[in-house]
Amino acid sequence: MPNSRLPSFKFLIGFEAAARLGNYSRAADELCISQSAISHQIAQLEQQLGQPLFRRKGRGVELTVAGRLLLDSVGKSLEQLQNGLNRIETYMDDSLATIVCPAHIASGWLQPRVDRLREAHPALCPIISIDETARYVDELDVDIVITTEPLKQQGLHEEPLLADELVAVCTPRLVPAPDAGLVCIEQDLTSDRIGPFIRQHFGARRKAAIYDDPRLALDAAVRGRGVALVSRLLADDALRSGQLQLLPGYPSLGLGTVWMARIEGDTRLPLIREIFDSLLHFARADEPIMSKID
């Protein structure tokens, strides 16, 4: 009966190299050991597992069925281990800070302010992610998170960052054009809250395009394809640059407060807290142009 004790990690490393390269000699060269050492390790591994893992093929080797099954597990385990080592390397790099942010806010508000952030913190190399699942601030994968509602996670310091609203925007050329079509986001049209607002205030306008990504709707507006109904934070950079204007005479719809969070107290690096404070400062400094937070 095969031994249930886990094999030596050294044996598994040698096995993976031989399986990947199809040759004991090349595996030995890669691992800087002798070919006889590789042969001995694999023989011991096969003895412990009670299964042959390789068969000879020409001047090399190929995996048996048992060998292929083991390689699948070992390969995944080594990949996971390497990912863990990479995460540790990232954690130890005092120039890296990970900020997780919804895509529309990252694109319209955060990205245009990265240069200001780096001017304030010259050593900073920001990692900006729009991964909607990465909301847990653990100081390893995530240092700062921006969300559309508070996380209420124990041990976090959270602050309101910005207020957002749904606004009608278009190029200056289209402002006086009453027949300009409407560029919409598909999920807004079916939303219980936003749908009635659109129908009440913009129902008379024909639909020029419907997108499933707000960033595409904004791009369509910048290209002059119609009046887009988008998040004001998404449109922030285009509004500030003059590419787009708010359509006068139409109301906006409040979308709530955007929050920012970091670990409470001392952060992984002093830089993390400084970045957090800088982003708060940017939001407050821009407040006359943005909507007020309730």
Beta-strand share of residues: 15-25%
Helical segment count: 11
Q: How many separate domains?
A: 3
CATH architecture of the largest domain: 3-Layer(aba) Sandwich
Q: Mind telling me the CATH class of the largest domain?
A: Alpha Beta
Structural class: alpha/beta
Helix content: 40-55%
Q: What is the CA-atom radius of gyration, in angstroms?
A: 28 Å
The total strand number stands at 11
Any idea what the shape is?
elongated
> Could you give me the name of the CATH homologous superfamily of the largest domain?
Periplasmic binding protein-like II
Low-confidence stretches are 288-294
Calculate the mean pLDDT score and round it.
89
The termini sit apart by 70 Å
Element-level helix/strand string: HHHEEHEHHEEEEHHEHEHEEH
Summarize the structure.
The chain is an alpha/beta fold and 294 residues long. It contains eleven helices and eleven strands.
